[in-house]
Amino acid sequence: MIQPAAPLSPPSRILLGPGPSDVPPSILAALGKPTVGHLDPTFLAAMDETRDMLRAVFATENELTFPMSGTGSAGMETCFVNLIEPGDRVLIGSAGVFGTRMAEVARRAGAEVTVVEGEWGRALDPERLLAAGQGGAFKLLAAVHAETSTGVLQDPRELRRVADELDALLVLDCVTSVGGVAVELDAWKVDAAYSGTQKCLACPPGLSPVTFSKRAVEALSARSTPVQSWYLDLSMIRNYWGSERAYHHTAPINMLYGLHEALRLVLVEGLAARHARHRTNAAALWAGLEALGLELLVPAAERLVPLTTVSVPDGIDEKKVRAHLLREYSLEIGGGLGPLAGRVWRIGLMGSGSKRANVELCLAALRSALAEQGYTADNDPLAAAAGVYAAD
Amino acid sequence: MIQPAAPLSPPSRILLGPGPSDVPPSILAALGKPTVGHLDPTFLAAMDETRDMLRAVFATENELTFPMSGTGSAGMETCFVNLIEPGDRVLIGSAGVFGTRMAEVARRAGAEVTVVEGEWGRALDPERLLAAGQGGAFKLLAAVHAETSTGVLQDPRELRRVADELDALLVLDCVTSVGGVAVELDAWKVDAAYSGTQKCLACPPGLSPVTFSKRAVEALSARSTPVQSWYLDLSMIRNYWGSERAYHHTAPINMLYGLHEALRLVLVEGLAARHARHRTNAAALWAGLEALGLELLVPAAERLVPLTTVSVPDGIDEKKVRAHLLREYSLEIGGGLGPLAGRVWRIGLMGSGSKRANVELCLAALRSALAEQGYTADNDPLAAAAGVYAAD
After folding, report:
1. Which residue in the set A36, A104, A258 is minimally distant from B11, CB to CB?
2. What is the model's pLDDT at position B103?
3. Model's pTM, two decimal places?
4. Backbone angles phi, psi at A9, to 5 degrees
5. Residue B392 pLDDT
6. How high is the pLDDT of residue B236?
7. Phi/psi at B341 (nearest 5 deg)?
8. Per-residue pLDDT at B243 exceeds 90
9. In this structure, what is the dihedral angle of CA atoms B353, B357, B359, B363, given to the nearest 10 degrees?
10. Residue A340 contacts B, CB cutoff 8 Å
11. DSSP assignment of A104-141, as one string?
12. By C-alpha distance, which of A207, A206, A209, A203 is closest to A173?
């Protein structure tokens, strides 16, 4: 007979990895508020507020905007299974784990996928996307706005230009951008986008906000085959989030409380102020890392503010460094994925985790961890970071 | 510019509908514990404990046992998309919303589906399933153990007998049974099962525990096509829950804290004691409802303990009754779905919601709501319920 485990007492971490990021107390408190029914009038009102606030952070008027009941990858799959019918052609720009994942998800949805592979750590070249797409009758072009595996920001306006040339829908992965850097879906004419809660929204993982343009909704309506996933079928889920309130699946009530509070905190701070905060703290981190003699993987012009990839110096055991940070500072940073495994660290300054105290602690902790392996730098990373704050 | 909403202050409800059910304070508190990373050593240990406790509540030794990152319907879809390849034949017994949903999900996964329709409010006849399946080369037989839309309990041993005759895998929907009535997956030789968190486990909605037998795992390994859903592909997710700890998607950390605590409470109480508690409270509710002159939809021998369907008397506006309960008592019960809409109420006594105080309050509230519409009964429902407790 299996005995019950002891109650959990998770440690207080400082989460500076690729997500989840640190969760503010009021969001944790929201998760623990009393559960109500998924058709309770008070909950329906909270859903409407959540949708309005999601539109604000996506900068869209899209009617079809709500959180899917799964993590970011469920949001990705939602976009592809709803917009693709078997045999549709899809063009995907990929230079990281999440671009690669997009291609795999699209293939499983029955698409004929053309992938334009870019260098990991660099933005995609729109001209190569255009060349690969020309004459191809592509239904959609998809790429990642903020590639969490490499720390690269892609310009969606260039993607839109390519999609316009190809007369294709544009699907954008905004998992690590929403709430941390400018996301302007209507201005950019993005047709479908998805995000996650556990990055710059600073909510625990578990939901994936999605949004679909009018043109994307027309594509949904024009389908001749059912969506292969019942769970992710927007034609049904929209009837629950819409005025019909038709039961589809039982909404994850308490996670939605958390998202409601997370969106509230974003709007209370203001999007512009929040993005500026993320920029300043990232600039201070970058200055400190460079003072430590560490190289950043991504050129400054293509660098993603909320997530920084740092090359591991020769001779350093990167896992030992992360273990030192966790043990001595209760501080988490991420390792590399795929071809970057063992070669980079990933440092996230996301949501409420993006603050001066975390930047300076992270730099001090890294210096200490590197010193343990005999690596020392000539310059003072904390002074370099302080210089950025002083100039701000 | 959209303004931030006010912080949520959800009301304290008594949730006696079809789920979510009332969530105990320690589970709500667990949801709000500090978020850690999905590869944090303390979290990996919590995952192992969660898996062990899940095996206990499923009464299985199945290696492949863990919660999917979605609600119960995601668990249903997980079973079908992983076990089915296009063209596979599937036999489904359906006498309610969730049997109907199974057939739809299986079709979308590419199965050739044969449905044996039963009467809503009655158990399925195994002989009819057998007759429909004979000579059919069915890969799997699927049915609902506890049909939440009708309040019927199906005997899995009879389903297994049919599946054995057909040499088919047996898939069982245990959403409303786990934690409330006996579930003995290994003894019953069930090959795949899924549940939800928001019923008799008394945790908020958002996760779906699943489990797969050795024979089911062999079927997964023998696939010649990829699973159509990337998000639900067990061949990858098992590498995160297994010793490899390979990243697939970011686990919903805080929801998993909640499930860990929910499972802990089940095992602290003990499965046998918990099932007995559910039985006693249901018996008291049934006695009280009958004293009120109300008819129960399901014959006693096929009745589901955690969820009772009550026929709405002629001339009663059932929505007004539910509105009265919510307004005057902050008490939620459910309405009917599909062909039972407007014809039944659904009263759940699930998890920690299954207690004497709730039974008696529900009976008193129903009596009051019915009296508002001029309906009175000769007998005292509270006395009838008290009689059951006295005899217990």
Report:
1. A36
2. 98
3. 0.98
4. -135, 80
5. 85
6. 94
7. -60, 130
8. no
9. -130
10. no
11. HHHHHTT-EEEEEE--TTS---HHHHHHHHTTS--SEE
12. A209
For residue B45, is pLDDT > 70?
A: yes
The number of C-beta contacts closer than 8 angstroms across A and B is 275
List all residues 6 or more positions away from A86 whose beta carbon is below 8 Å from its beta carbon. Answer: A109, A110, A111, A225
Say whether residue B45 is in contact with chain A using an 8 A CB cutoff: no
H-run or E-run covering A147: strand A146-147
| DSSP letter assigned to residue B312 | P
Q: How far apart are CA B335 and CA B292, in angstroms?
A: 18
The pLDDT value recorded for residue B2 is: 80
Helix axes B126-133, B156-166, angle to 10 degrees: 20
Q: What is the CATH number of domain B272-391?
A: 3.90.1150.10
Map tokens 């945790």 to a residue: B203
Which residue do the tokens 């730099």 mark? A363
Q: What amino acid occupies position A110?
A: G
Where are the domain boundaries for CATH 3.90.1150.10 in chain B?
272-391
**Which has the closest alpha carbon to A85: A169, A185, A208, A144?**
A169
Owner of token pair 């191809």: A136
What would be the CATH architecture of the domain defined by A271-391? Alpha-Beta Complex (3.90)
CB-based contact A369:A313 (threshold 8 Å): no
Residues of chain A with pLDDT under 50: none
Test the A interface: residue of B31, B98, B259 with most A CBs within 10 Å:
B31
CB contact under 8 A, B31 and A254: yes
Tell me where in chain B the CATH 3.40.640.10 domain(s) lie: 25-267
Mean pLDDT to the nearest integer, B48-63: 98
CB-CB contact of A274 with A179 (8 Å): yes
- Tens digit of each residue's pLDDT (9 = 90 or more) over B344-388: 999 999 999 999 999 999 999 999 999 999 999 989 999 999 999
Give the pLDDT score at A392. Answer: 85
Closest approach of chain A CAs to the CA of B60, in angstroms?
Answer: 11
Nearest Cα of chain B lies from the Cα of A222 at a distance, in angstroms, of 18
What is Dmax (Cα atoms) for chain A?
65
Q: Is the pLDDT of residue B235 over 90?
A: yes
Task: Inspect the interface and report whether the beta carbons of A5 and B260 lie closer than 8 Å.
Answer: yes
Query: Could you say which residues from 264 to 283 on chain B have a Cβ atom under 8 Å away from some Cβ of chain A?
Result: 264-268
- Give the pLDDT of residue A243: 87
- State residue B200's pLDDT score: 98
Give the mean model confidence (pLDDT) for residues B236-261: 94
AA letter at A321: V
Q: Is the pLDDT at B197 greater than 90, yes or no? A: yes
B23 touches chain A (CB under 8 A): yes
Give Cβ neighbours of residue B337 (< 8 Å, ≥ 6 apart): A247, B97, B149
Bridge pairing between strands A344-348 and A334-335: antiparallel
**What percent of chain B stands above pLDDT 90?**
97
Q: Which fold has domain B25-267?
A: Aspartate Aminotransferase; domain 2 (3.40.640)
Q: CA-CA distance, B127 to B167, in Å (whole number)?
A: 16
Structural tokens at position A11: 């440690």
Cβ atoms of B252 and B159 within 8 Å: the answer is no
Nearest C-alpha neighbor of B154 from the set B87, B99, B196, B213: B99
Give the amino acid at A109. Answer: A
CATH 3.90.1150.10 spans which residues of chain A? 271-391
B1 pLDDT higher than 80: no
Q: Could you tell me the CA-to-CA distances from A277 to A272, A282, A355 in Å, in that order?
A: 9, 9, 8
Which among B37, B248, B249 has the least Cβ separation from residue A332?
Answer: B37
Q: Which residues of B touch A206 (CB under 8 A)?
A: 69, 206, 252, 254-255
